[in-house]
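Project outcomes to date are best conveyed with an example. Our students and postdoctoral researchers have been running inverse folding experiments weekly, and each run begins with a structure described purely in tokens. The record below, which covers 305 residues, was selected by the lab manager from last quarter's runs and is presented without edits.
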């Protein structure tokens, strides 16, 4: 599943590939993904992309007519960009059609699955194409006026972003009354957005904090963060920044927006390393896996207390 760093990588890729470009056509090959597509999705044709932002794991594509195209990659969504030269190299005119006239994807050799999971395609006036592929179909696409962003149901209840100005003081305020395990509190999108399973494990390991400790134990009686919580906050920012810098990381079949299927391998320190020696110098412990709220937690009982 793409986590925040992957989504940020996609944002940066789209920024390079489609910013200031004008959509000439939208090809829609099914009714929807997790939810039905907005009825007016085809009206994105004619709009120019004026910005690409990210809120939590939502991509927010600003259009010059004052609307926002929201895209969430779900479990397996990805965008692949094709230049006009790439697109011209693929014979488009001989294709069968689906959905009352929409040609089937011609890009299956690049996007995988013979193109049958290329559900959406944005064609730009310069011939660039952005193909959205999503085999598991948990992705979300929505379209709304920018003035409604604050009340958009998917966005309105999200917690703070994990980068500045977010601090240990903010985290302490969110954890003050939480008796749940610290790791589960970090996964709660109302505490902070975008700290998924992998990066919660990594940040706790780096901080030497057991994932099962109670969240409110990291808040002093006066509501201020403990030293451990300050360290954890720094490490959350650090692990996410490092992953963004290295182009995100992958576990599944998730590809970056660079026109290829290639993706970045990222060496995790604790995630997925059950039974292997702890990577911390001098620790000598062994990484264990436990299940919290149906999710695997990887941790080192020797150095995480
Ligand atoms: Zn260790």
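After processing, the design step wrote out the following sequence:
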């Amino acid at each position: 599943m793409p986590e925040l760093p992957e989504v940020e990588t996609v944002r940066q890729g789209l920024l390079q590939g489609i910013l200031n470009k004008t959509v000439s056509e939208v090809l829609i090959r099914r009714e929807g993904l997790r939810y039905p597509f907005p009825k007016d999705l085809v009206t994105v044709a004619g709009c120019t992309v004026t910005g690409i932002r990210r809120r939590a794991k939502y991509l927010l594509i600003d259009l010059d007519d004052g609307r926002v195209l929201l895209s969430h990659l779900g479990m397996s969504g990805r965008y692949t960009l094709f230049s006009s030269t790439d697109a011209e190299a693929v014979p488009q005119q001989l294709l069968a059609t689906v959905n009352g006239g929409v040609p089937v994807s011609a890009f299956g050799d690049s996007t995988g699955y013979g193109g049958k999971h290329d559900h959406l395609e944005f064609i730009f006036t310069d011939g660039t194409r952005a193909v959205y592929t999503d085999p598991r179909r948990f992705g979300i696409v929505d379209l709304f006026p920018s003035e409604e962003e604050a009340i958009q149901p998917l966005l309105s209840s999200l917690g703070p972003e994990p980068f500045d100005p977010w601090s240990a003081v903010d985290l302490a305020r969110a954890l003050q009354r939480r008796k749940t395990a610290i790791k589960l509190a970090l996964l709660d999108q109302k505490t902070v957005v975008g700290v998924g399973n992998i990066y919660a494990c990594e940040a706790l390991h780096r901080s030497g904090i057991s994932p099962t400790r109670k969240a409110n134990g990291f808040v002093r009686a006066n509501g201020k963060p403990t030293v451990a919580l300050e360290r954890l906050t720094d490490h959350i920012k650090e692990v996410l920044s490092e992953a963004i810098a290295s182009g995100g990381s992958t576990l599944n079949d998730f590809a970056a927006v660079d026109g290829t299927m290639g993706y970045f391998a990222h060496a995790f320190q604790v995630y997925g390393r059950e039974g292997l020696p702890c990577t911390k110098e001098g620790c000598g412990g062994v990484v264990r896996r436990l299940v919290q709220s149906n999710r695997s937690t990887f941790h080192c009982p020797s150095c995480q207390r």
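The radius of gyration is 21 Å. The CA atoms of residues 48 and 185 lie 40 Å apart. The training component of this project remains on track.
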